[in-house]
Amino acid sequence: MKTHLPKVNLDERKWHIIDAEGAVLGRLAVQVADILRGKNTPVYTPHLDAGGFVVVINAEKVKVSGKKETDKEFMSYSGWKGGEKYRSVAQVRASQPEELIHHAVKGMVPKNRLGRQLLTKLKVYKGPTHPHAAQMPGALKAAN
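Above: the chain sequence. Below: its structure as tokens.
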């Protein structure tokens, strides 16, 4: 028995826009990752990029539950001795609110070439405006 391999037409990829205002970070990230992978399409195949593009606006207004705003830390390492830096969610939100959503979605896609390719289709903006109006993205409601 042969496995059916669907043809993925790159020209038919849809653009989706999600407003992150008031949405819980983890639930929003799951929804975005599913769209990027194409799990909402009938041609979903685990090893193919069959998903669409996602534009997330109002990234600075995303919510986190519990005490994560102060207790959760993001670690970065420069590669040098003593080069570890820890930042809380509040500090990341103040300087780079787009990174909160990008980091959460990155943890939910495959850790390989496919995952890196999927993340290029994620566009996150901190305000209500975005430069992708020409692609005519369809509005989606963020999961709460």
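The mean pLDDT is 94.
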